[in-house]
Each structure stands twice: as structure tokens, then as C-alpha cells.
């Protein structure tokens, strides 16, 4: 089997096969390039270093070892052994005769926005998000996130768009998914947001907070949202409430409200309840568009797919929207939901898949397919024949975001690819 190494870092990488004493076992892969390395006949251990190696016995002490598998039942996976290194490595299998080792920089997922200029609009970022962020209960119908992935864990893992759905219970707002209580009070969510956004290590970040009403008392719901925010740490000062897509520098250390509830802003200062979509058609297969001041917002939220057999079309529609349109007359924000649910397509199965699809005993889930799409984009040819790399932009909301491992870092890496001085607020 042919092994290709794709170096998607700014460093020269030196690789050496520990099972081969010949000089051919070592090679240098230049930054942002791909090179054929070796023929794999079995699982093999490799040394990776930023410094030259002339053989497996001459590896520098800082070199790290990874095991490259000979075969996979999945399309891709992150490799173990690099936790203390400045890289993340992914193994992908294209066909029976070729596979790839893709190396990207390891970025701090808890504060990755720190490395992006203030002048970049949120519409020109790739922000990973979670659909039904607080839906930890009601498996397999209502649960959309694993119970061990609390909100603070999600935020530190790189999630920057959260989808909070609430119902009025007595005098409080409680997280709900449809008719199923998710038990977390809105006040707890607000406290966790404040803790994250005010910490010295993560105050460089911002979080888009979509708030959707799950009951029918529109006027009271809006009033309670405001009252609970006022009573929470940080109060209204923690929030960006304009109906406009801000630049990153305007909202560092703030929550950006994305209001999917009515009430027309009664009781709010100047009636401002944040970014407020005027329409939201239910499960529109081809998506829909709306305007937020000067920004065209493209939205894909087709969730009622007939069955798991429609996963390929779901993925195609959900990912193609993340490729920015060429020569658009106005700024564009793309929002895509990677989630789906129907009687024959329950959230855990659609997100994670089932069985061993590589040997045709099961099917591949949305998340794994999106990860493969991202790897292909990151290692593919540059857009528009330039050298900046491919552009992937938008806000992507997932179910069970941690499955498979390594998906969120791929979304994060897109923020540092396809950048050119003078474009998208970059300098």
C-alpha cells in the first residue's frame, strides 16, 4: 500500500520508518506539500521531527513516534502518540492501494480565536457549533450530545456556536428539547458562559448563542430571557445585541445573541435582541436565505431526512454551503446544521453511523463524512489558482460533536487557511 504524507504545517517535517534501516526510510516533506513516502505492508511506527534524520537510530530526542496502521475500517482517524507535539496527524484511506498521513498544526482549542485579527467579521470565520447543545437526556430520540460533554467542556474543546432551547417552567427557563426536559436551568448556562468569557485564558473568545423558544408564551418568554440575563454574572454587558454581523474585535469576551424567539424586543433596550432571522422554514431541503443588514445569510437546516440512506445527500448539502461563493456583491454568512432526525434516522445513528461501513456492515455517519470532506479540502489544490489554500467558512452545528475524535480541530484549522492580506479583514 502506498503511503502519502501531506504536511499542512509551516514547518519542514522529517519522517523516518523505524522498521527500515535503509536511507530510503527517511524523507523531508516541505510545508504545505504532499510527498509519497513508503510502501506499507504492515502496521509501522514512524518518527516525526522538525529536525533532519538520516536513519531510525539517529532520531533527535524531540522526535515523536506514531503508529501508522496498514488498514482501516473507517475512512479516517487521528493517530495517537502526538499529544505532547505541536501537530495533530490523521490517517486516511482513499482506496485499497493508497493511504495518507495528514499533519496539521496543534492549536489551543480553548482560545484559537486569539490568533485571528480583530478586523475579521464573524461571517468570515469557521466556527464549530453544537446543535441542541444542552440535550443530554432522552436517548435515542431527544439526546443530541453525550452526557460527559457539558457546556464548559464544549467551549474548551473549541465550540463557538451553541444552540440553547428553553421552555418556561413556573417562573424559570429550563433547557428543553421539544417536550423532553434537559434539566439545566438557563441561569446555569449563563453562569458557565460568563466563567468562560471572563477567564484570563479565554477572554479572547466569543460565543454565538442561539436561543430558541420551545413553548408558546412568546411575550413572557422574551421577558424572562431578559430578566435572567440581567440577574446573571455580567448582565447585559456580557452580550452583543445588535442585529448586525460584528467583527471579531467587537465581541471578544462577549456572547453574541442569535434570537429565535418572538416578542419584537419589548422591554429590551431599543428593542435589540441580537441577530434575529425574520424567517426559518421548517426542514427546507435546499436551504433558505435572509438578510442581516448588509450580510446575506445562507442557512441549511434540512433535518427531517427520510432515513439513513439519505445521509450522503444531507452531507453534500450541508458542506457545499461552507464554500464561499465567488464574486458575491455583499458579505455572506453560511450557517449549516449537520444534524438530522426522523423515525428512521435518529440523532445518534445519523451523527455517528453504525457498524463497519468499510466492509459493508453498517453505514458511515454524517460527522465522519464531514471530517473526510474537510481533510480533502485542506489537502486539495488551492482555490482560484492561488497559494493561500482552500476557503471553508461559516458556522457548523453538530450532534455528538466529539464523535469521531479529531473533527473539531479540522474545523478550527480552516480559520487559518485560504487567508490573503486585504481580504476578509485579514492583514
Describe the structure.
This protein is α/β, with parallel strands linked by helices. Helix content is 17%, strand content 29%. The chain is built from eight helices and 22 strands. It has helices at residues 151-156, 186-198, 218-230, 248-251, 311-320, 347-352, 366-379, 407-414, and strands spanning 2-7, 13-17, 26-29, 33-39, 44-49, 64-68, 76-78, 87-95, 98-105, 126-130, 161-169, 172-177, 180-185, 207-213, 239-240, 255-260, 288-292, 295-300, 331-337, 353-356, 361-364, 394-398. The strands form four sheets. Strands 10, 11, 12, 13, 14, 15, 16, 17, 18, 19 and 22 form an eleven-stranded mixed beta sheet that branches. α5 (311-320) crosses α7 (366-379). The longest helix has 14 residues, at 366-379. The radius of gyration is 23 Å and the shape is globular. The two termini are 42 Å apart.
